[in-house]
């Protein structure tokens, strides 16, 4: 009976790196980058901006241009995405506002 050998090489096309821009997230980045280099993967950097607190009086949503937390997150994401460790690896960013599970 001929021996059949299956290829069990793992393939990782995309690696999701969720960050809150904290020191703990920064410490996890080298692991995501090592995997990306090893598997020639794309790193997808994701951050969720918490929703606005619930107000007792119904109000219109704050326009993004006036939302300080959103503007701060955009600046942090832009800075993060142009950092040296990411430059040699395919990468993209996802920045959304809302609950994390969304």
The helix-strand sequence is EHEHE
Number of helices: 2
The gyration radius over C-alpha positions equals: 19 Å
Structural class: alpha/beta
In the sheet with the most strands, the strands line up as: 1-2-3
Task: Report the β-strand fraction as a percent range.
Answer: 15-25%
Low-confidence stretches: none
Q: Could you tell me the mean pLDDT?
A: 83
Assembly level: single chain
Strand count, sense and closure of the main sheet? Answer: 3 strands, parallel
The geometry reads as: elongated
End-to-end gap: 52 Å
Helix content: 25-40%
- What is the number of beta strands? 3
Features:
alpha/beta, 2 helices, 3 strands, three-stranded parallel β-sheet, 102 residues
What's the structural blueprint in terms of helices and strands?
Elements: E1 14-18, H1 23-39, E2 42-49, H2 68-81, E3 91-97
Parallel strand pairs: 1-2, 2-3
Describe this structure in words.
The chain is of the alpha/beta class. 30% of the residues lie in helices and 20% in strands. It has 2 helices and 3 strands. A 3-stranded parallel β-sheet has the order 1-2-3, with helices on one face. 9% of the residues are buried. The mean pLDDT is 83.
């Amino acid at each position: 009976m001929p021996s059949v050998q299956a290829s069990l090489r793992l393939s990782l096309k995309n690696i999701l790196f969720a960050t809150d821009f904290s020191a703990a997230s920064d410490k996890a980045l080298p692991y995501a980058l090592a995997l990306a280099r090893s598997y020639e993967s794309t790193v997808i950097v994701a951050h969720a901006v918490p929703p606005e607190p619930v107000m007792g009086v119904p109000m219109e949503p704050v326009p993004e241009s006036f939302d300080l937390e959103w503007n701060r997150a955009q600046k942090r994401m832009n800075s993060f995405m142009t950092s040296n460790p990411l430059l040699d690896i395919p990468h993209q960013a996802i920045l959304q506002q809302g609950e994390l599970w969304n």
